[in-house]
Amino acid sequence: MIGLPELPYAKNALEPIIGAKTLEFHHDKHHKAYVDTTNKLVSGTDLENEPLETIVRKAAADQSKTTLFNNAGQVWNHNFYWQCLKPNGGGAPAGTVGSKIAATWGSAEKFFEELKNAGVTQFGSGWAWLVLDGGELKITKTANADNPLVHGQKPLLTIDVWEHAYYLDYQNRRPDYLSVVMEKLINWDFVNSCLG
Fold first, then answer.
1. CA 178 to CA 44: how far, in whole Å?
2. Do residues 51 and 125 both lie within one domain?
3. Which pairing describes strands 126-133 and 136-143: parallel, antiparallel, or unpaired?
4. Rg for the chain (alpha carbons), in Å?
């Protein structure tokens, strides 16, 4: 069975960028609902005791398991997203990933511009990602529960652009939410740890 991980920080730790009320709804209601539904769907099946990543990959490969993929994918995406944020984070990319970003995009500013554009132009609900694809850094976006794992890519960073991630704090101003998350919350230590 899949568990709901605790947030890696207090619910008010990301204020004023992301409010405690947003995290309460986002983690305790939305994320928990995906976990609960995933567990119901795998209960009594051959996936019941599989790790989450295996459930996501197997569900993605089977058209009859779309509902399972939608929920398990969202569990995985949220587990990953919480790790991508930290209080007093953000700013210029640091460490090995910072060097790779500079080599790929020429500057942190260009990278942030493209990452923000991926989030802004994701129609409807979804995610903006920095991934490793065949050894190269790429920015991508996915809709709904889709994620890079099922496309042969290695996720390094994501920003949630579902409305429940920002609506209480930013209403319909998704670009403002993306900008301030990049400036003040990205956990570059975690992003670097994903490169290994």
1. 40
2. no
3. antiparallel
4. 16
Q: Which amino acid is at 93?
A: P
How many structural domains is the chain composed of? 2
Range of the domain at 180: 95-195
8 A C-beta contact, residue 35 and residue 3: yes
Q: What would the pLDDT profile of 35-85 be if each residue is shown by its tens digit?
A: 999 999 999 999 999 999 999 999 999 999 999 999 999 999 999 999 999
- Give the count of beta carbons closer than 10 Å to the beta carbon of residue 88: 10
Is the pTM of the predicted complex or chain greater than 0.85?
Answer: yes
Single-letter amino acid, residue 113 = E
Q: Would you say 31 and 80 are in contact if contact means Cβ atoms under 8 Å apart?
A: no
- Closest alpha carbon to 13 in 67, 71, 76, 89: 89
DSSP secondary structure code for residue 129 in this structure = E
Looking at the structure, tell me whether residues 29 and 110 fall in a common domain.
no
Burial of 163 (0-12, 13-18, 19+ CB in 10 A): middle
CB neighbour list of residue 191: distance below 8 Å, 6 or more residues apart: 84, 93, 97, 130, 156, 157
Strand ranges of the sheet holding 136-143, from the earlier edge strand across to the other edge? 136-143, 126-133, 154-160
**Does residue 41 lie within any of the structural domains?**
yes
pLDDT (average), residues 164-185: 96
pLDDT digits (tens, 9 = 90+) for 145-172: 999 999 999 999 999 999 999 999 999 9
146, amino acid identity = D
1, 38 in Cβ contact below 8 A? no
